[in-house]
Structure formats: structure tokens, C-alpha cells
Amino acid sequence: MTLSLPAPRAILFDWDNTLVDNWGAIHEALNLTLAAMGHPTWTYDETRLRVQRSLRDSFPQMFGERWPEARDIYYRSFSDVHLQTLRPMPGAAELLEELAASGLYLAVVSNKTGKFLRLEAKQLGWDSHFTRLIGATDAPKDKPAVEPVDLALGESGIPRNATVWFVGDGAVDVECARNAGISAILVGDNPTGDVAAEVTSRDRPIQRVADCFALAGLVRRYSGPISQGSPRS
Hints:
Layout: E1 10-13, E2 20-21, H1 23-36, H2 44-50, H3 55-63, H4 67-85, E3 87-88, H5 92-100, E4 105-113, H6 114-124, E5 132-136, H7 147-153, E6 164-168, H8 171-180, E7 183-187, H9 193-199, E8 207-209, H10 212-223
Parallel strand pairs: 1-4, 1-6, 4-5, 6-7, 7-8
Antiparallel strand pairs: 2-3
Helix pairs in contact: 1-4, 3-4, 5-10, 8-9
């Protein structure tokens, strides 16, 4: 089924498994944390399936009153390796260069802790592509709440409506888009895709694309040829 989308005025991106692959660092740090806290460790596939919510939202459920201790272990472990294991998703660099030249308002809304998100964007040389890089704890609430979306749009003057595209890979991204009243674009064939479809089954359909190359084509389809040197919003 071909879905009808309005041309985007803004595109908000999830980070992990949408623009970058850093599951190795996440998995290693999480298992070190689980082991230190006396919990069974997870397989790599379990990590990819279960890690959706921010640490602030998920760790209290996982570790109870000891969650601040677990948080500190995770942060130390993750900070040691995340820049070394960081890899762009296929087509992501080309996509962002193209979009940055188009004049579209670009921002990130991630459940990765904000300081780590911004370090990774700088490491890749992508920080200049985005007007705002919003991670967990930057807003009063994290995805799927609307607060990080509002913070990402900032003073752009762009309202929360279907002309704002939210691009992500999982259920929490689609739920966030639904809560904010913006368009949901699901990237990739991933284990949370079917869950994301269920989240929106009572709302409007979501657009699916295979990867960042396909997303670039989708933007061209709805926005027309990308012009060089257009002013950023």
C-alpha cells in the first residue's frame, strides 16, 4: 500500500539502529551491568529486542532501588568503548549530507543519554547537520513522551503536525510520533517492526523504508529535487 505523506518541513531522527550502529558497545556495557548487579546476562539479540526505553525509564524497573548504582556502572562501561565501536548505518552519511543541503530542519530525538549522543555526532562529523541533538534526560521526559520532540523543534516555528517526519527503527519511535501528532517513518526490517505496526494499528498507518538510501528516495519523492545551498530553518 502506498501511503500519502505531506512534504516534510522537518525530519527528526532516532539515532541507534537508524543512523548509527553501536549495538556492540550497548550490549557489552549492559551485560557488564547485569553481571555486576547479579542478573543473568542477555544475548546480543535479546539486547537489540529489549533496549527501547531510556535508561532513566528502564533501569528502575530492571534494578529497583539499586538502579542508580546500575546506572553508574553502565555509564562507566559504555563511555570506555562507544566511540571506538561507532559505525554509520549504510547510506546514513550520504543521506544527511543531502538533507543538510536541502534546507530541511533536521534534529535528533534519541533515548541515548544526551552527552553520549552529542559525542558520537561530533565523532562522525555530523553535529553540524542538526539544529538540535536531543537525548535522554535533556527534556523533562524521554521518548515516547512529546517533550523531547518539542525540545528538538525548539524555536523553529514548525508546529507538531504531519509535515514533521519522525524517522526511527522501533515501537518507541512510532509511539512517540503518534503521541506528538507527527508522521512516523519506520526504517529497516527489525525485530521491533511488527510491534511498531501494532502500536499504530488503531491510529494511522506508518510508512516503511528499507534503509537510509530508500529514505533519501522517499524525501525526494515528496519534496522534489534537493536544491543546493538552501537556507536552514
